[in-house]
Amino acid sequence: MKPSDFKLSRRSFLQASTAAGTLLSASYAPPAFAQSKSVPLNEYKPEYLSPDEWQFILAATARLIPSDGKGPGAIEARVPVFIDRQLAGSFGNAADWYMEGPHDITAPAQLGYQSPLTPAEVYRAGIAELNQWCTDTHGNVFALLDAKTQDTVLGQLESGDIKLVSTKSASLFDLLLQNTKEGYFADPMYGGNAEMTAWKYIGFPGARASFREWAGIEKPYPLGPVSISGKRG
Amino acid sequence: MARQEKKKDVVIIGLGWTGSILGMELCNTGLEVLALERGSDRNTVPDFQYPQVADELKYGVRYGFMQKPRNSTVTVRRSESETALPYRHLGSFLPGNGVGGAGMHWNGHTFRPMPEEFELRSYVENNFGKRLIDDEMAIQDWGISYKELEPYFNKFEKVAGISGQAGNLNGEIRDGGNPFEGERSSEYPMPPMPQTVDSNMFADAARKMGYHPYKRPSGIASTSYTNPYGMQLGPCNLCGFCERFGCLNYSKSSPQTCILDALKRKPNFEYRTNSEVMKIELAADGKTARGVTYIDPNGEEVFQPADLVIMAAYQLHNVHLMLLSGIGEPYNPATREGVTGKNYAYQTNGGTSLFFKDVDFNPFVGSGSNGHVIDDFAINQIDFAAEGFVGGSYISAGTFNGQPIRSMRLPAGTPKWGAEWKSGIKEWYGHSMSIGSHGSNMSYHTNHLDLDPTYKDQHGRPMMRMTFNWKPNDIRMTQFMKSKIEPLAQSMNPDIMQSSFKSQGAMYDVRPYQTTHNVGGAIMGSDPKSSAINKFLQTWDVHNVFVMGASAFPQNIQYNPTGAVGALAYWAAEAIRKDYLPNPRPLV
């Protein structure tokens, strides 16, 4: 089986379906804006990520912020959409960063990012290498491993026990975790934090931005969030 | 061949706080003034308007209002033996970009340095002996006293619209202010800001321990206010989008809200944006500048003649431009000779986090300059001989924002991801606070700025190289603050507390945000052999070039720099108006 033939794992598929919510129901005709903004994750056409990379992102973010327990997981919050769109844009191509050489990829970490690769290139190289590592070690690409093994692999990636040479001193794990949390908590217009569910979960009122009368008041703030587009949660 | 523009009396490089102040003060003398700003124009509407500006990802995380390293950055190393590498994306410090500079995205903390800080070397030697200043430490007196600058602090505080309460008004110590501050000749123009839950809890605990809490002097309007230029500020609504953002509410002190609209009305003021100065052009004898060469928005090189050149860029860029223009002998750490690039310093900070299961802090309620402060361990309150270090800190608590990508404090040991992280954010978001120390940083012969031998900027010029590391004196200072903060935090009975202070052997790390309080490199002083500019901020070698900003600080103060930067700008403006213009010459 070629990597491009991989289908959604059953678990990822179920999570993606949940995220789509009622939009998956055949009898429900969603309004046009909802269709354009919130196609089900398993129908989303990535702007940057390849099908294999998309499967990896679905699977990995689902472990970084799992769906079980209270609050949305990364899948319900549509974090993978956020990551794909960030990688397709100015963040992915390091538009603001100084990227000229020479690049010393052996430099101490405290001297900061020194990889010649853009974030989008780090994902591309790193996911391919990690999938190869998973195939060599566990017999399957990351997305098709069981959750426990996926957690172990992510832990090894985080600790450096799995070293990816193709990312040239950049850390795929650090980028992935940072972008996952960004997608979870950023304004929904960037593709994640669907329906402001992550804000509602922790009690952040989003873009309300007016609290003069709340200075020094020690009781829970009663109002739900608003988004930059003016939606209320 | 550069295009030549019509001559101006004054050219100002950079249109942030100091460029705006000098622009206003020199326009008021009738001179033709041109400001060249390398970034784009910025106005409250549309650039900071609601709701678009309330976007943590774009401005808080992706640094939408900051300098792009692709356009301008430095290289960094921790010692002479290390190879400096580019600061490729922002982390430790965040220089601004565009009209308003860092003065539009700052938090607004506006302190005056203590009188002792202006004469630090003398103060230490006279009171605690010379042995505390080891051979590597390069601290100097500023060549100016607090008393000389006092009227100019007043002036800046009134223009910027600072909210606060005097602690020492004409020698009278007043309740609620900072009893350890230098004597002030007038009250702040606005009363202090309303405070958040954590700020009040800290103040209560500090008072119980016999300390002297006061409300942080804020460049944030607590009421409606009209400043001496006729600019109007509206009362802050504690929106929680201050640091890294432009103010949506005309409340934060910034060049935009306090100076620029008044300045732009003046017929003798002109500014050109997206115009980056490449070099200050000197006359053949090197004693005066003829003007500047800049790149215009079309990429064309332009020579702009002027009689007076005001360097008003960010600290790092002032020093870089001096090095590129051959103003002042570059500092050589091996011989300790030369002045340009000497005495780069930073800020020595630490903090303790406190978690309270049952307290609702509502961290999204806040202004950039919220908080109570104690100065009981400030520079003039410590026996340096007994403690074995030089320096001090202010200690404060107050929430600035609760934006969840960046402001998600979790107890140590909470996993960074997975089910436990997810339950941790629910359990602890809004239930923690921190007490921070914000401390001085001494200057050292080995911490300096020069031109990088390898890396070039987008115009092919050598990048500036920063050589900087933490030194034992400053680590001892910050560890001392830990020993004072932890008992104070403990007295508040948090469910969990944890500290983060640098310890011996700490190496400078460019990744986490620390402060944008880079100072030194073009320091002021009374001797041309050991300083780049005189007490009037005039370069010793080129008398029609004046250098504003925190590049003038011989070492870093314990406070945030903007109060001193603003006062020095007014002080220099007055010297230029009253003394230099009638008779252009070296003023010292």
TrEMBL record, chain A:
Keywords: Signal. InterPro entries: Gluconate_2DH_su3 (IPR027056), TAT_signal (IPR006311), TAT_signal_bac_arc (IPR019546). It comes from the Bacteria. Residues 1-34 form the signal peptide. Pfam families: Gluconate_2-dh3. This is Gluconate 2-dehydrogenase. It comes from Thalassospira alkalitolerans.
Automatic annotation (TrEMBL), chain B:
Pfam families: GMC_oxred_C, GMC_oxred_N. InterPro entries: FAD/NAD-bd_sf, GMC_OxRdtase_N, GMC_OxRtase_C. Residues 233-332 form the Glucose-methanol-choline oxidoreductase N-terminal domain. The keyword Flavoprotein applies. Residues 446-569 form the Glucose-methanol-choline oxidoreductase C-terminal domain. GO terms for molecular function: flavin adenine dinucleotide binding; oxidoreductase activity, acting on CH-OH group of donors. Keywords: FAD, Flavoprotein, Oxidoreductase. Belongs to the GMC oxidoreductase family. This is GMC family oxidoreductase. It comes from Thalassospira alkalitolerans.
